[in-house]
Design goal:
Number of helices: 27
Shape: globular
Distance between the termini: 62 Å
Largest sheet: 9 strands, mixed
Number of strands: 19
Mean pLDDT: 77
Structural class: alpha/beta
Strand order of the largest sheet: 4-3-5-2-6-1-7-8-11
Oligomer: single chain
Length: 841
């Protein structure tokens, strides 16, 4: 609401004019009803804030912090495509809306993480089989005001869940006022974030960029345990990077907020009533940024409302003038032309759009025919030769989907223009169904083949010479093997089924969208009819010149006030972060410093022991001279792990070379950074190093595991390097583990990473795989992971023995270390149980 509530006061002024006597109350009753409806809307007006961000950036945790309790599932797997809203209210409850039945209300003990998870968790409600459309959570403990609603959107950039991104950017975004773009402090996906934020900026939405998980930041430790950068310096560097990114997105416009928080610590602080933990989480700074942005929104809304009032007052005045002058035929025609003419054009455009979409859907039939012919006519039996054929189908489906989306967006844009002409709220007008097409892959089978190997010896050489003459297999040994070949019939059947499924899916989308669009057109026609009826009713009434002229004169005065009203949008409070001032310096005694150095030396030596052990294992597996190769998308994380486990120290100058060239040789090891600037030379350099034997460490972000999965499985250069490379041992290194340690969900992380590992193994099944490791300061966790993974069957007695050994180490003295080790051991024990159960089934 505007600071002086001028718009609501204006409605009261208009009321005094239009209801001054009985005659005016009767003549202008419909006009006054319109203003009263606007007053009701404005009084309860909602500012909608959508939390948008890369999958697993902590959206649900932030919403829970704002709710003051853990209600939403905080799993690290991608959430479902269901939209969840949170707001303040007198009663604590959740309303679950369904597509095919009445809403369900959850209250009291029924409202908890477990119950909400049944509807909102992708793993428990796969593909939204329950047909949930939305979940609204209301609680009196919500940290924001009653007129602010938070929307937890589907995540962006998730592997095989691109439809969630379309739902967020194309459907949700146009209906909101402020975008909270959530990422992690250590996010290495600036290009991806910039692309998404450009879409937000194009739709002219206020942006608050929130860097979450400041609790995961660890100081940068160099040689001899010297701290090169403390946490506050690292945080400032990340913040500057985000600010630079946003300025580029917004063309050097500084109208944005960047806030760094720990949503997890904010939630913990509230639940445990730990004021210090809550204060250090910076949630209050986030709330201040939200308040600053909402203060910028209200003047804009007031300006739109003033313009709609001016238009309505002009309608009242011009209608009275036309009736008094007797030129009613022209006036009513003009009214119909303005109102119904726009709607008729909209209906025609909509009909045209429907025909275009049907044409696009029919193109799929042609795709099916062409691709089936191409597969049928191919004489090749090699699996790889069919990949390009199948890729054509998938790409064509994507083009068709994109074309349909663009047609719908054009129609929606024109519809919104009519909403504005009728002074209707455009934020609730956009209703585009989600689009999710299925992809096709090449089916394969195995055929028995025979390979001939030469027998040694002079006699066998003579036999082979005779075998060539007599077409016999003398002097050879026959070896049978299974060869992977394409299953043409199965691939054709699947292509046919998938394309038909996509056709039916698009047709259902067209039907759903058409139903909603027709409703909007009917609303417009109803509004136009109302205006016409008002005119006819006023025309039949007795003309009281004095009253009408007095009304018009007073309304003109009010209109002029509205015109002269200046809404100063720019003069708003700016939230100033205190984080930049958090650098502290203090002195310690020499004894304290020596003790600190000793502790770090213990950690360093034990970590190097872990690295040397992994080296020996890889040499035994490959039976060859082995080089270490570190493959990453986050160079700082890779630098940290290489130093910890192998004593490889990279200087700042060396890091700049890696960022530029993508490939760097150091201490018989190779660093590979896929996000380098010089892509062309990088690809050529990779080709030259492929033939050696490598102990590979793929360092990836554990927080944004869906995005990491996408990076690894869709990397063309990594696929080229790994494919058919039998001189390779792969280890997976999880970075950003501190946040999982803090949240006590290391076990869940390992489950997700194990599923991730299975996906990689399915894609590159000829490669050897070794360990899953954690890039964490304390090496005790990697000792546990190695010890457990080397057990053929991790049974209860192993659990007991390994636990006693690890807990006896000086590296596991703290409660946090013991809890984390327990989680690792429990994961392996449960995995063994799951394996046994599946074998029984």
């Amino acid at each position: 609401m505007g600071k002086d509530n001028y718009i609501l006061d204006t409605i009261n002024e208009i009321k005094e004019v239009l209801e001054k006597n009985e005659y005016r109350r009767k003549r202008y009753n419909k006009d006054m009803k319109w203003f009263q409806e606007r007053k009701k809307i404005f009084t309860g007006d909602i500012i909608r804030l959508a939390i948008i961000g890369i999958t697993s950036s902590g959206k649900s945790t932030l919403v829970n912090a704002l709710l003051g309790e853990k209600i939403l599932p905080m799993a690290i797997r991608p959430s479902s495509s269901i939209i969840i809203t949170a707001s303040k209210g007198e009663r604590r409850q959740a309303i679950v809306y369904f597509k095919d039945k009445n809403p369900e209300i959850l209250e009291g003990s029924n409202l908890n993480e477990e119950t909400i998870g049944q509807y909102a968790d992708e793993s428990r409600n796969p593909n939204n089989k329950l047909n949930v459309t939305q979940i609204d959570i209301i609680t009196p403990d919500f940290l924001l005001n009653e007129n602010i609603h938070i929307i937890d959107s589907p995540g962006l950039d998730a592997w095989e869940l691109e439809s969630h991104e379309k739902l967020t950017l194309e459907i949700l975004l146009p209906t909101i006022d402020i975008c909270i773009f959530l990422t992690t402090v250590k996010a290495n996906s600036d290009e991806t974030n910039a692309e998404k934020m450009k879409t937000v900026n194009e739709k002219e939405k206020q942006i608050i960029l929130v860097q979450n998980m400041i609790d995961s930041i660890e100081e940068k430790v160099g040689k001899n345990g010297i701290i090169e950068e403390d946490k506050s310096i690292i945080l400032k560097k990340h913040k500057r990077r985000a600010e630079t990114l946003l300025r580029e997105v917004k063309n050097n416009n500084d109208d944005f907020e960047v806030v760094q928080i720990s949503a997890l610590n904010g939630l913990k602080g509230i639940i445990n009533k730990d004021d210090e933990l809550y204060r250090n989480s910076n949630i209050e700074e986030f709330l201040g940024a939200v308040e600053s942005c909402t203060n910028k929104i209200f003047p804009k809304l007031d300006k739109q409302r003033a313009e709609s009032f001016i238009e309505r007052i002009n309608d009242i005045i011009s209608m009275d003038e036309e009736i008094i002058s007797g030129n009613d035929i022209e006036s009513i025609d003009a009214l119909k032309n303005v109102r119904t003419g726009d709607i008729n054009e909209l209906a025609e455009n909509f009909q045209d759009a429907q025909e275009k979409i049907l044409g696009k859907i029919k193109e799929i039939e042609e795709v099916i025919s062409n691709i089936i012919n191409e597969i049928s006519n191919s004489t090749s039996e090699e699996f790889e030769s069919y990949l390009n054929i199948v890729e054509k189908i998938n790409n064509k489906n994507l083009y068709i989907e994109s074309d349909i989306l663009n047609i719908v967006k054009q129609c929606e844009k024109k519809k919104n223009e009519v909403y504005q002409k009728f002074n209707l709220d455009t934020r609730h007008s956009y209703s585009l169904p989600s689009m999710e097409s299925n992809s096709i892959y090449v089916k394969h089978k195995y055929e028995e083949k025979t390979m001939l190997f030469k027998k040694e010896g002079v006699l066998n050489r003579g036999k082979r010479l005779l075998s060539d003459i007599f077409d016999k297999e003398w002097g050879y040994t026959e070896v049978e093997y299974d060869e992977k070949v394409v299953d043409k019939e199965a691939t054709i059947e699947m292509a046919n089924d998938v394309c038909n499924e996509n056709m039916m899916h698009y047709l259902s989308i067209l039907k759903e969208w058409s139903t909603k669009y027709n409703k909007s057109i009917n609303i417009f026609y109803d509004e136009a009819i109302k205006r016409t009826e008002e005119y006819e009713e006023k025309k039949t009434q007795k003309i009281e010149i004095y009253d009408i002229e007095d009304v018009n004169e007073n309304l003109t005065t009010i209109k002029n006030k509205l015109k002269s009203l200046s809404f100063d949008i720019e003069k708003e409070l700016k939230v100033v972060t205190d984080l930049d001032e958090m650098v502290e310096s203090y002195s310690i005694s020499k004894v304290q410093y020596n003790l600190y150095k000793l502790c770090n030396e213990v950690l360093e030596k034990n970590y190097l022991m872990v690295g040397n052990y992994i080296k020996e294992i890889s040499r035994e597996k490959l039976n060859n001279k082995v080089f270490e190769i570190f493959w990453t998308w986050d160079i700082e994380a890779c630098q940290q792990f290489a130093l910890r486990a192998f004593g490889i120290h990279l200087t700042q100058d060396e890091l700049e070379i890696i960022k530029r060239e993508g490939l760097y040789f150091v201490n018989n090891a190779i660093i590979v950074y896929e996000l380098c600037k010089d892509k062309l030379n990088f690809y050529e350099a990779i080709k030259k190093i492929k033939e050696k034997s490598y102990n590979m460490f793929i360092v990836f972000n554990g927080i944004q595991i869906a995005n990491s999965k996408k990076q690894i499985l869709e990397s063309v250069i990594l696929s080229y390097f790994i494919k058919d490379n039998r001189n390779l041992v792969i280890n997976l290194v999880i970075d950003s583990c501190k946040v999982f340690v803090n949240a006590n969900n290391v076990k869940e992380l390992l489950v997700e990473v194990n599923n991730f590992k299975d996906s990689i193994m399915n894609k590159f099944n000829e490669v050897k795989y070794e360990y899953v490791l954690i890039n964490c300061k304390n090496p005790i966790y990697n000792m546990a992971l190695i010890e457990c993974s080397e057990k053929d069957k991790f049974i209860i007695s192993d659990y007991r023995d390994v636990k006693e050994k690890l807990f006896g180490s000086p590296l596991s003295r703290g409660m946090e270390e013991k809890e984390t080790l327990e989680a690792i051991l429990s994961y392996f024990l449960n995995r063994e149980k799951s394996t046994k159960q599946s074998m029984k089934i």
